[in-house]
Amino acid sequence: MEKTDAGTPVGVDDPYAHVDRCDHLTSEGKCRFAVEQGDRDPEFATRLREGEYQCPVAGDPTEEGPTGPWEWQDCPQFRCRQHDRECVRCGLTEERMAHDDGRPLLEEHHLSYAEESEAGTGQAAHEITIYLCRWCHAKVHGSWARIDDDVNPDPEAIAERERRRGRQQEELGFESAADRYDGE
């Protein structure tokens, strides 16, 4: 199983197996990074410009799944961050509270970490980030729990989410100023 720099497990054997698409990939199959940020990696941008910025992993956008000659791990600018605000392991959804400094229910979880090179120093790996509730996050890092385990949300997680929903409902309730300041 993949491990963090500290040696704790991340819950997967192959981080790339949990990737749907690169964050830089447009719906037309082009690489947004090469077009908009090509100055950060001119060699990469020049190489993709020759193919009209077509993503070498995605291939033909009319076909299902990646059909290009590269794999996600071959692309030097690959990045994949989950955008759904729900735990990928148990399905718990985030209940965000405005103007509240309380700890969030969901935490970012990185599936890839620095890789060892011949020199022995860690080389930055691709960014592959998902969301886990803080209870699943602790289980994944603290044991051999996997992110693709079929589990229900922890009872403490459900209780905390319901407390937040209750506070949201209280804030949505209407109380007229006449009722609030009656008798003053």
Tell me what portion of residues adopts beta-strand conformation: 5-15%
Q: Quick one: biggest sheet?
A: 3 strands, mixed
Low-confidence stretches: 117-122
Average pLDDT, rounded to a whole number, is 85
Helix % is 10-25%
What is the distance, rounded to the nearest whole angstrom, between the alpha carbons of the first and last residues? Answer: 66 Å
Q: How many beta-strand elements?
A: 5
Number of domains: 2
**Radius of gyration, in angstroms, nearest whole number:** 22 Å
Read across the widest sheet, the strand sequence of neighbours is 1-5-2
Counting DSSP H or I runs of 4 or more residues, the number of helices is: 5
Helices and strands, in order, run as: HHEEEEEHHH
Shape: extended
What is the SS-derived class?
alpha+beta
Task: Explain the overall architecture.
With 184 residues, this protein is α+β, with helices and mostly antiparallel strands. The chain folds into 2 domains: 23-77, no CATH class; 79-173, no CATH class. 24% of the residues lie in helices and 10% in strands. It is built from 5 helices and 5 strands. The strands form 2 sheets. Strands 1-5-2 form a 3-stranded mixed β-sheet. The longest helix has 18 residues, at 155-172. It is extended, with a radius of gyration of 22 Å. Mean pLDDT is 85; it is low at 117-122.
